[in-house]
Model the fold of this input.
Amino acid sequence: MLFPLIKDVLSFPPDSRKLTVRGWIRTKRELKNLVFIELNDGSSLRGLQCAFDRDVHKLAGILDEAGTGASVEIEGILVSSPAAGQELELASKSIRLIGPAPSESRPGIPAYPLQKKRHSLDFLREIAHLRPRTNTFAAVTRLRSRLAFAIHQFFQRNGYQYIHTPIITANDAEGAGAMFQVTTLNLETPRTSSPVDYSQDFFGRKTGLTVSGQLEAETYAAALSRVYTFGPTFRAEHSNTTRHLAEFWMVEPETAFADLDDNMNLAEEFLKFLITTALEDCGEELAFFDTHYEKGLRENLETLTRSPFTRVSYTSAIAELEKNAGAFEFKPAWGCDLQSEHERYLTETVFRGPLIVTDYPKEIKAFYMKLNDDGRTVRAMDVLVPRLGEIIGGSQREEHLEKLQTRMTELGMNTTGYQWYLDLRRYGTTPHSGFGLGFERLIQYLTGMTNIRDVIPYPRTAGQAEY
Ligand code: 4AD
Ligand code: MG
Done:
C-alpha cells in the first residue's frame, strides 16, 4: 500500500483519524515540552505540521536526530490545529527515522546543504540533485508536470496524433548548423585519413542530435492530417543567455491543409489553453511565484487569456522600432533579425502584450518556409511575449517542389539527403503549417523565473553537464 500524500491529507477533515505519513523534514521547532516538525513530501507546497509531546512519548532521542532534510515516518491522529495559518495538524505519537540528514558535518558526510530558509538560485544550481527539496523547484516541477499533460490534452482533444520523431538524425532541420554530432568513430586515436570517412561510422553517414522534429512531423501530417511531437531537442549553441539551453523540450504541431492564419489561430488558442490550465490547476504554485518571483503574475496571465494577440508584419514591426532607434544597442533595420531587446520593446512598450510577428525576410528564416509573392519575405510567424520575447516560432511550409528546390539550391544545401522530404511535394502535396513552442520558455513565462536553467531539472548548457 502506498502511503497517503500530504496533499491529500490536507484535504481530510480533522476527525481524529489515525494516520501514518512519510516525507522529509522541512523545519523543526522546539518549545519546552513540545516539538513541531513540518513534514513535506513534495506533493504540495504546504507541509503537514506534526506536533510531538516530548516527555510523554520519550521520543527525545529520535527527535534530536531528526533534523531538516531527514526522511521520517510519523504516526498520529489528525486534529484541528490551534495554531493560526493552518487548519490541521498531526497529533503525533511516534516517529521513525528512515534516513538521517546531519545538520553538522560528520566525517565523510558534509552537513545537509539546505539548512537555511532561503538559498540563492545560483547556489541551488550547484546542487541540482537537492534543489527539488526546495519550495521553488518543487513548485516548478509540479507545474511543469501538469503543463506537459495539458499539451497532450489540447492536441488529443483537437484530433492531433502524437508522433515520436527520432532523436538521432542525419538532417539539420533548421539549417542553423548548431548540431551535436553522434558518432561511434574512435576519437581517442589520432585520425590518419582526412576528411573523415563517415561510411565507417555507425549509421554509415554523418549524424547528430535533432534540432527539431518538424521535418519528420511533416511527413506524418501529410498522411494523418494533424500531428504533434513533444520531445527533447538539442542545439549546440554557445549562446550563454537566460533563454537558451543546449537540451530543451519542444512541442511541434504540424497541420495539413492549414495556412498561416490557421497556424496563428492554433498557436493563440493553444497558449491560452495552457495558461488557463495553469490558472485553474496550479493556483497554489502561481500564488507562490506571484509572491516570491513576479508581482502581479497571476493577474497578467489572466489578462492574457482574455485579450487577442496583436498580429503585425515584420516590416511594420521594424518601422515601429526605427521610430525609437536610439534606444537599442543593435540598430533595427529591415533585413536584420529581431534581437531580444527589440522583442521586449515591441511587447512591453509598443503593443503591451503578446504579439505575433509575421512575414520575415527569407534570409533570416529557415529554408522550408513558404515564399510570399513579393519574393523577399516568407510566411513565418513568431509569437513574442512580454519579458521573454520569442516563445513560439513557426510558419506555413513551402509546398511547391520547384520553389523549395530553388531555395535549397540558393542556400547551397545538398538536396540528396532530403529526397524523402521533397517527396512530400511530389506526391499529394498540400498547404501545411506548424510551429514550435519551447516548453522551458513556457514554464519561464508561467512562473516568472528569469533563468531558463531554473525551470528544467538538469540544465545542459555549454560547459555544464555534470549531473
Ligand atoms: O524558432 P525555432 O528554432 O523553430 C523551430 O525549430 C521550428 N522547426 C518549429 C516548427 O515550426 N515546427 O524554435 C522553436 C521554439 C522557439 O520559439 C523557442 O521557444 C524554443 O523553441 N527554443 C529554445 N528554447 C530553449 N533553448 C534553446 N536553445 C531554444 N531554441 C529554440
Ligand atoms: Mg525561432
In short: Residues 382, 390, 393 surround magnesium ion (ligand 2) (CB under 6 Å).
